[in-house]
């Protein structure tokens, strides 16, 4: 067999195996292949740097880390869930306050509510998730929204132009969420609040009602902290519970009991707003969009937080040095970014961000786009349809202590010059209704540092 043919076959086979097998398995299989067709001395798969062809490993390439605030495009309109409440992370990411804005709809339209006497009214919220200190009692409040919302507006977690009446329309104190055992929250509403609602709904169609009553906001009362709760809408299909979220007003008319039901419908004008107070933390200087801070100033830690725009930037400044080692070209067989979680950050009490992805940035730290699409770092193995999905990694359980991203294809493209090496961010995939945070060890940490593990082959 011609030498150039053998080399081409081996290079192709090694890349194919590396996508589906561990590096060790790939090397063993290739040894069997080479033994069947080589002359003695043609190839050397050892670790010697002088070998003309060899499987090499490194995890010492320089990485640089910065924590960024990139919160100018976190769209939360028409979310899958309502997120409200607050939690405090002293010395970590500070206090987070979530406010859920939702329009209301009539369960029954064109009903005459004149002459009724209100007995009571409640906002019932059925929830599946609570993040933070669920053992601390927390206070919640309901207010009337005073700005008409539009379903076509891409409201963001930083939206501040939608206002609400500061008068508390309903509240409840000392709530300790129990999503599994008692996934029900009931907030009593004032008679004045209920009267305003019935007046707006009196003999109205759903369209007319929504034109006069803009909705409600659910939030932490008096800046109390405990946890951020994720509740389903009235028509939520993802809820595991059959009882729906709703607002109910109970009344009597001519001595007969009756009720009016208002629904919070998913897909109608709604969004989750997230406010942050990072005072007293190592990232307190992150105030405005694109503000950033190096890991030197954060004791070699990096931060990621859903809903707030806190992300970690990673750059590979000397990756090009790998492209020509000892005058040889390099083929990347496997490249894995390993991002360990800081185990001193109480990540068991504050579950890490559910799912992280990687997005490329421009030199000015704005989001990079290709073909009018956000430039995600794509996975190295295509789907059955030949599509390369964005690479992600999830913190699936309490045993998860690190995130691992297969970026083989991306690193090879950098070395070939197909992509510009401008860095990327580690960013939450879900920002609409999550506020989880993760603290990562940076590449300069004393142990369990962030690193890029690369298996590569040198080719003359």
> What's the N-to-C terminus distance?
18 Å
Query: What count of helical segments does DSSP give?
Result: 5
Radius of gyration, in Å, reads 28 Å
Integer average pLDDT? 87
Write down the overall geometry.
elongated
Number of domains: 3
Strand content: 35-45%
Main sheet makeup: 12 strands, antiparallel
Contiguous runs where pLDDT drops below 50 for at least 5 residues: 1-14, 16-20, 23-53, 238-242
Structure, explained:
- With 460 residues, the protein is mainly β.
- The chain has 5 helices and 27 strands.
- The protein has 3 domains: 1-43; 55-69 and 289-459; 82-277.
- Helix content is 13%, strand content 35%.
- The longest helix has 18 residues, at 3-20.
- The radius of gyration is 28 Å and the shape is elongated.
Helix and strand arrangement:
Layout: H1 3-20, H2 23-35, E1 55-58, E2 64-69, E3 82-89, E4 94-102, E5 105-106, E6 117-132, E7 138-144, E8 170-175, E9 184-188, H3 191-201, H4 206-212, E10 216-220, E11 227-231, E12 246-253, E13 256-263, E14 270-277, E15 292-294, E16 301-305, E17 310-315, E18 324-325, E19 328-340, E20 355-360, E21 369-370, E22 373-374, E23 392-394, E24 402-406, H5 408-416, E25 424-428, E26 437-441, E27 451-459
